[in-house]
Amino acid sequence: MAAEVRPRLTVLSGPSGVGKSTVVAHMRKVHPEVWLSVSATTRKPRPGEKHGVHYFFVTDDEFDKLIANGELLEWAEFAGNRYGTPRGAVLERLDSGEPVLLEIDLQGARQVKDSMPESQLVFLAPPSWEELVRRLTGRGTESPEVIARRLEAAKVELAAESEFDTTLVNTSVEDVARELLTLMHVV
Ligand code: ADP
Ligand code: 5GP
Q1: Which CATH number applies to 9-183?
Q2: What is the model's pTM?
């Protein structure tokens, strides 16, 4: 019988405000060796966000060039900004046998599944719609217009949950982080 193939590329998606960044930050506090791809984005930095750490913050022209040069593994427009995964760094990590985590939107998750079918797709779901609205609003980083736009996108993302291999409900950050580490074969 063939040995089980361990999926080494894990994609974490879920509606804006569900807690993806919080879960990933907790996971990396416990296991700093887990490598998370840093995306490029045309979005402006939020207070405290650092270039090269949270994102590579680029102009529209620079993003166009990344696409034209084939430097993105996937990219998507989300709520008025573009986001993409730099291909080179991800492939290097995979080649060296390290587990790789992408935190990207639904459109990006679909592209990764198409180009790398061996990857595993994990959907982070909110305990309820009301709690999602509370978290997104409570974060206080977006204007009411942007929140409304992100909640529209959230309806589409929640409807696509069945496309994912696994769903984790973000009730407890610690529990979800542990479950994710298990899925990635880190623990
Ligand atoms: P995302 O990265 O998915 O957009 P964030 O990680 O920024 O979401 O989380 C959105 C807000 O929800 C933040 O204020 C965060 O502190 C809060 N949050 C995240 N996970 C939980 C949780 N399990 N319980 C309560 N609040 C949470
Ligand atoms: P935020 O602006 O809140 O940081 O991110 C908005 C959305 O973009 C989130 O769903 C996040 O997962 C997604 N995102 C972040 N980086 C990428 C990326 O490289 N590609 C894609 N497709 N989505 C991304």
Answers
A1: 3.40.50.300
A2: 0.96
DSSP string, 151-182: HHHHHHHHHTGGGSSEEEE-S-HHHHHHHHHH
The protein residue whose alpha carbon is closest to atom 16 in ligand 2 is 104
What is the layout of strands, in order, in the sheet containing 81-86? 56-57, 40-41, 81-86, 72-78
Burial profile 79-93: b = 16 or more Cβ within 10 angstroms, e = fewer: beebbbbbbeebeeb
pLDDT digits (tens, 9 = 90+) for 35-80: 999 999 999 999 999 999 999 999 999 999 999 999 999 999 999 9
Sketch the domain layout of the chain as residue ranges.
9-183
Phi and psi at 169, nearest 5°, equal -95, 125
Between the alpha carbon of residue 26 and those of residues 21, 70, 96, 123, 153, the distances in Å are: 9, 32, 24, 17, 25
Instruction: Write the burial class of residue 144 (CB in 10 Å: 0-12 exposed, 13-18 middle, 19+ buried).
Output: exposed
| Best mutation site among 16, 67, 78 for ligand 2 pocket (most ligand atoms within 8 Å of CB) | 78
**Ligand 1 in reach of 135 Cβ (< 6 A):** yes
